[in-house]
Fold this sequence. Notes:
homodimer; alpha/beta; Ubiquitin-like (UB roll); six-stranded mixed beta sheet; globular
Amino acid sequence: MPKLRFIPQNKEIEVESGINLLKAADQAGLYIEGDCAGKGTCGKCRVKLVEGDAGNPTKAEKKHLSEKELSEGWALSCQKRVKENWTVEVPVQKEAHLRKTTLAGGVENLEGDPAIEKIAVKLSRPAVKDQTADLERLLKHLDRDDLSVELRELSGFPGMLRSNNFSVTAAISGNRIISIEPGDTSDQLFGIAFDIGTTTIMGSLIDLHKAEVIAVAAETNPQNIYGADVISRINHASEGKGNLKQLQDKVIEATNTIIKELLKQTKVARDRVYEIVAVGNTTMSHLFMGVDPTYLAPAPFIPAYSRALELEASELGLDINPAGRVIFLPNIAGYVGSDTLGVILATEMDKRTSKCAAIDIGTNGELVLAANGRLMACSTAAGPAFEGAQIKQGMRASAGAVEAVQYVNDDFEISTIDDAPAKGVCGSGLIDAAAALVDSGLIDATGRIINPEENPDQLPEKFKNRLKRGESGFEFILVPGSDSETGDDIVLSQGDLRELQLAKGAIYAGLKILLKEAEIDEQELDEVLLAGAFGNYVRKESALTIGLLPQLPSEKIVAVGNAAGDGSRMALASKKIRERAFALPDKVEHLELSTRRDFQDIFVDALKFGQ
Amino acid sequence: MPKLRFIPQNKEIEVESGINLLKAADQAGLYIEGDCAGKGTCGKCRVKLVEGDAGNPTKAEKKHLSEKELSEGWALSCQKRVKENWTVEVPVQKEAHLRKTTLAGGVENLEGDPAIEKIAVKLSRPAVKDQTADLERLLKHLDRDDLSVELRELSGFPGMLRSNNFSVTAAISGNRIISIEPGDTSDQLFGIAFDIGTTTIMGSLIDLHKAEVIAVAAETNPQNIYGADVISRINHASEGKGNLKQLQDKVIEATNTIIKELLKQTKVARDRVYEIVAVGNTTMSHLFMGVDPTYLAPAPFIPAYSRALELEASELGLDINPAGRVIFLPNIAGYVGSDTLGVILATEMDKRTSKCAAIDIGTNGELVLAANGRLMACSTAAGPAFEGAQIKQGMRASAGAVEAVQYVNDDFEISTIDDAPAKGVCGSGLIDAAAALVDSGLIDATGRIINPEENPDQLPEKFKNRLKRGESGFEFILVPGSDSETGDDIVLSQGDLRELQLAKGAIYAGLKILLKEAEIDEQELDEVLLAGAFGNYVRKESALTIGLLPQLPSEKIVAVGNAAGDGSRMALASKKIRERAFALPDKVEHLELSTRRDFQDIFVDALKFGQ
């Protein structure tokens, strides 16, 4: 069996001969960026063979790598089969989630009303005159005769009681004792809220006794190896026996990594974490639970379930108290998940009387509209363009990503995350760049980059070196190769602009349909809320310029941070809010856009830059 | 590692050198009879070394085996350490439970009102106009929005639904769907009632749809290797880490063997068995559930729990539908378990207005008295003498056991089970023999066998050869060695009579205390019910003769069969009866005899034969 060594992570692994290098890295526990699930189309899973022979480049490698790169040993890991010992350099990603604010939500004070109750009691001692059994004695002192108890906890209970002077603490969930602990531990009450994103999984450890977030951590969703978007993952799950389990194992493993990190940061004991409340899109919910998502993909897009699922941590192998409860909040429809429900919770759109829209742009795009006593939601086929996928040099928001582009004083001002040498373009940079191109006149309303050969007079002299002919139309050079990390020009291509148009058009069209259903005009909106990490970084002006948002005064457009994550935290910290969450699916009207006759017309109209 | 071959079972096993032969047989899955948990005191774990050298006999072997037996290769398996390859002959036991009537209860018609409901539905098909999720669609058709569902069942539900034309059957327990099955399986609804005895485990497979017992099976409780009585097992459980698990594994394994046998007999599918309802004494309940029984042994005899425990079959590793429910009925006190509760259920003592006592003699003895609107119960330290333990040649009721002894026409008539050559004496034979000895005048009221040397005139000539001097006093020869299976005389010793006196004295004294508490005289009793297999076989006349029972007209003494097992069957078949069972512990007053000042006096008085 060939041996692989990965640097700088310094991991070694023996693999079966002939295995795909991308899969081998996954087996070694390494994450290699990529969007196309190994199809060779995204060109992002680059690695460098430091020792060993890569063999002849494939067609896909020739397309995505320069002669120079190939000669230096660069390869696409999805294109390589491991047949001999190799040392492979894996570019280190500084992940989006490391940007601190990504983790923060807009809700600062949690309402504390925990679903788990902890009660410390000191029991009377048994005697011949009082032969009450240990459990019944405990229940009598708790004054709760209706409680059942976890068998796991009962097993050693008699000994624990006697070696702790009959002083114990019970953790109660509903009408069940899920934990019995020696002495008084009533102030140790913790839970973890999860936002299971298609791209990133985030966890917040909450002291439920104090209703405070005490630590946050995040991980890339390792299902990524099966594709950047939910459809690829549904397809993978449907394609073979065991694939669903594979996807579930991935997300559970990453969730456990986050749990471990949170416990390490805070020195909280695993068994003192009694609840997990999770949100995520409907596909993520199915994959987390290991439920067949096959029928989410084709029309009519039917989920296996809608209601909240509640089970024991041990059933899923989650490393909190084994009897701890895991609650995945309910989904609204096949493509409107509990993440959107979390947005509604956090922004209290279900309680608002004003006219308000929320836009959550993550790997997918979901929209909610509250108006005239109705609450409506829909999903749009925005795709993951805003997270850098399907964009030629798109990347997630990590060091070296072009994150801001402004057209000021007749020139382009460009900055990257951490001021690192440019490596690519992230979502906010993409929108900014497009808006700056609109402002500069280098693209027209249809999104076409002006042809400097046909219309040389439209191109100011100083921008001449910013445009070059690419594979499909012209490209705008954001950062020349001389200044970039890779030595290649960092560009925005005509194709990238088309992707952006399709994505922003889908979102704007979705909003227009919701407004049409509610019979209100976009100018009547009191507020437009931008949820998701994206909302924190995108410049409202740019979003308005490209026509991603309705033309409203900029103060009416409010970034609300990771509202989906906030929703999960709120539902974890408060039983009352959780019950509100459980009831929400019945209150939200879901609009299925794909079959509306009026959608295509509105969509095409929404494609243009500017309004 | 030495190799062992067991014949006639023809099992081979490699074992660690030095292992005890009794334990090695257990590892090979063989059951060797024994009562003393390997202490060498009962002499019952005989085996014959067919190949290999047994080495020098131990003191215990010399005591229990004759010179001839030792020379033939007979040995006590608890005394032998395996150091070389041996072929070992294990005497085959035809178990008590093979006697057909042992399995039968007194209740012939079960009340059918199953706790599990099965509903077949044909769902409407989803469409864009009706995007209801699969689970919610099912719940809508079931008209039960309150149901939660087993995750295991949800996982493949979407595919199953579509490949079965949207026709499925749900099995519902309480407010939970525990199984979703393709097509209409609503008439396939099964459960198993268990009586987890200290000595024997019995199971009845019930067609819950028809409320009919369709198969019965039984196994020796393999915990037996750790001692015949509950105290030995509690001690073993307390003595080392892992011992409790060991005991639990034993009983679960035997329970699964019974399940397998029942399913094989009836060709019922494992997944169509949705419930197990079990009864057993409080120690058996703790060991079945894997709950520490330590504090049951010393005063004040406190159980870990009293209420019914209900859990999933998969939690205990029981081989029925993994989401099937397992319910162990509640216990009343440390030594009055759900088996006694089963007796009350089956005999409806909780509903009677007459004055009635029930005596359940198994490995332990429990008593119940219903009188004057009160229901009282106690346990007696009867010990397992009635099951043959602590009796010199005692054995369980299997082929070759002396089961009936009558003194008629001035002579003894003796019969064995299956008319096989005599091997020993079982419980009913023991009582019969003692009564016959009383009738014949060969023992006096204090239980002493007449000394033929001191009082030769008290001994008729024809009985001269029936008495011989044993280790401790005289012995009465039931079957001479010339007619026995073993070649040894089958005897009733003075020691055996003492054991019987202590056991029957304890039971009768217990009854007297209950009567005293209820302030009624034994003559006022309308009925005395004899529960347990024992009650089926003991002759009432003999029990009256030795003073095991109050002196009542024999028609007032009624054998009710395996009432404890009946109770479990009734509680399995009917939800209403099960609820009655759950409420019983609060209605039964438990009397703790061990600390009553009046007990010793009454006990000593109750020792004498005759009243």
